[in-house]
Amino acid sequence: MSKQTAPSETSTGSGEKSGTGVIDQAPPKAVAQQLKTVKQEQKQRVDDVDRETLIGLYRQMLLVRRFEEKAAEAYSKGQIGGFCHLYIGQEAVAIGAISAIRPDDYVLTSYRDHGHAIAKGISPDAVMAELFGKAGGCSRGKGGSMHMFDRKANFMGGHAIVGGQIPLATGVAFASKYKGTDQVTLCFFGEAAVNQGAFHESLNMAQLWKLPCIYICENNQYGMGTSLDRAMSFQNIAEKASAYEIASEFVDGMDVLAVKEATARAVERARKDYRPTLIEVRTYRFMGHSMSDPGSYRTRAEIEKHQERDPIKVFSSTLKEKGIIDDAALAEMEKSVREEVEQALRFAEESPQPDSEELFTNVYANPIAPGSQRTKLSNE
Amino acid sequence: MAVITMREALNQAIREEMLRDPDVFLMGEEVAEYQGAYKVTKGLLEQLGPKRVIDTPITELGFAGLGVGAAMVGLRPIIEFMTFNFSILATDQIINSAAKMLYMSGGQFNIPIVFRGPGGSAFQVSSQHSQALESWFAYFPGLKVVMPSTPADAKGLLKTSIRDDDPVIFIEQERMYGNKGEVSEDPEFTIPLGLADIKREGADATIVARSLMVPLALKAAEELEKQGVSCEVIDPRTIRPLDIDTILESVKKTNRVVVAEESHPFCGVAAEISLEIMERAFDYLDAPVKRVSGVDVPMPYAKNLEELAIPGVDQLVAAVREVSYM
Ligand SMILES: Cc1ncc(C[n+]2csc(CCOP(=O)(O)OP(=O)(O)O)c2C)c(N)n1
Ligand SMILES: [Mg+2]
């Protein structure tokens, strides 16, 4: 399910169609077939990954899932305000991709950022506290759900203007090349961002200047309530890379290992040769666009069909069939993950609100009080 | 001290700062091989090389955002807009990313970047190429906005802006690139942001003027001197942070004030300055604050209409006479 095209290998503009993992109107038989395929492919991939990594990936996906279920609960109780965009259903994308980079590599993403933040190493405590608008949050309560940041983790933000993070990530990658480091940057965005000029401007610059940026389009097939076919004239996103002669891949986003492998190939290109890649990951969000989404634009049946390919369920059954993990170990892990999430919730609840003085801090790194300069100078 | 043009002063500032700090790079349309659309970046490619002096495609949103991203990880980009008219395409990255990153990251990511280029009215290029945008940028906490009116100020302020740890909007008046003045050659010559300059001392009335209006205000002051009115001319130089104290001190001395600008009046910087004077020095005023702005229409092409669209010396003289009840 993963097709790799790079300008040096095959012509990206060959017109060859990438197979999509899911076709919405597919009859039940076809869906069952797809499920079989993803499982088969995943089983093969498992052989190339060590046990500890496999279990780690599974645990991270489960952690993000349970974390967000808890966040949804807290949101309903009014403990979390504003917008809250859940990642449920898409976990394999952030976790697979981020597992293929080093801790000193960079990640930027959109407002749907809780999973990426945790995957990049921000503690669930700090992410939950940020959702609660508390001082212990990873952005000290000033960013909220859409703006997780952590300098130490090189997590460069959730960004809330659709497509806004794409030029930023391109700049972070530019800086790595400028400084001569071998760090790479992962830039995640939804498929709706592909229609923004920022996407096209960035890909052009990235290939023109050979920047180590990996663009990961999480194609969950909807931008809020607008389905892809109502918004994009040519819907093969991976193939759009050919307009810029950028290497690209199409990946099944319900298979964490497929995402990991594709990202690893892109990382290699970026680290060694400063070459960018566009990866289109076909995925699906099981929840509404945000907590306030009534979801009238799609049917329950459609969602359920995709839930059959739930990346966590698919992966656990693969791991069981391969004898990597058993039911007892899974139950044990479920327990420890739930404890970790409970701990995050407690941390967020107990963390103090930001001091009211914080309203005025961090506007400038070098604040200059209006009118103070003359007195300051004459005192010197 | 040497007498050089504003263009040369800006060139020196960029050159010196790039030589001083390898993290500074310059990026924009035609900045390298073409030597700058207005020749401000002349010779920089040759001296500093293509890694640091970079021609871009025409992709303002893209390279503005790229600059902000690079600044997040410690580089100090100078992003040139061929003219500030084109910065309008980049405002999402300037406002939503550069101005807010430090705040919404809880203090983790400051953005040391300079967005610079010519702005304000140009000569006979009609509406899309001739406009003053400082009030847009000055509106946003998180940005600093600088508008020099002399070659010395241009050099000193640009050097400080490049060294500053925050995003700075540095607007050079397109008509003033050829203006000459004395400029220090000391590589450590800088001028602090947020410090107004008293361009001329006077006792009877204050003219607050920035950018293109400064030389006009000085001419008006000369004319008024002949009529027996001694004018003080204050150039804030930095719009945000604004050195309101220097303006207030002057107003408290002269008790009469005219605020001049070439921009549109509505929601403009002069409106803000006038309000601050009213709030903080009302009791010192002997006449209502008088604002002189460009007219509230897009810039026309025809020479005679264009001349009518921005304030001239005569209008400034008349305004001072009005607040002096002459
Ligand atoms: C420039 C801009 N326009 C509109 C919005 C409102 N908005 C927020 S998310 C969204 C849909 C984006 O969909 P997509 O990029 O596919 O990401 P997904 O939500 O599916 O993860 C819209 C329209 C916005 N935040 N920014
Ligand atoms: Mg989407």
Q: Could you give a short description of this structure?
A:
Chain A has helices spanning 28-46, 51-76, 91-98, 114-119, 124-131, 165-179, 197-208, 237-240, 256-273, 300-307, 311-321, 327-350, 372-379; strands spanning 3-5, 106-110, 155-159, 185-190, 213-219, 222-223, 226-227, 247-252, 277-282. With 380 residues, chain A is α/β, with parallel strands linked by helices. In chain A, a hairpin with a 2-residue loop joins strand 6 and strand 7 (226-227).
Structural account:
Chain A is α/β, with parallel strands linked by helices and 380 residues long. In chain A, 44% of the residues lie in helices and 11% in strands. In chain A, the strands form 2 sheets. In chain A, strands 1-8-9-5-4-2-3 form a 7-stranded mixed beta sheet. Chain A has a two-stranded antiparallel ribbon with strand order 6-7. In chain A, helix 6 packs parallel to helix 7. The longest helix of chain A is centred in the N-terminal third of the chain and has 26 residues, at 51-76. Residues 1-26 of chain A have low confidence and may be disordered. Chain B has 326 residues and is of the alpha/beta class. Chain B has 2 domains: 2-183, Rossmann fold (3-Layer(aba) Sandwich); 197-323, Rossmann fold, CATH 3.40.50.920. Chain B is 37% helix and 18% strand. Chain B has helices at 6-20, 44-48, 60-72, 91-98, 101-104, 134-138, 151-163, 213-226, 244-254, 269-281, 303-309, 313-323; strands at residues 2-5, 24-28, 53-55, 76-80, 114-119, 144-146, 168-173, 180-183, 197-200, 205-208, 231-235, 238-240, 257-260, 290-292. In chain B, helix 8 (213-226) packs across helix 12. Chain B is globular, with a radius of gyration of 19 Å. The mean pLDDT of chain B is 98. The chains are: A alpha/beta (380), B alpha/beta (326). Residues 110, 112, 160-162, 190-193, 220, 222-224, 289 of chain A line the site of thiamine diphosphate (TPP).
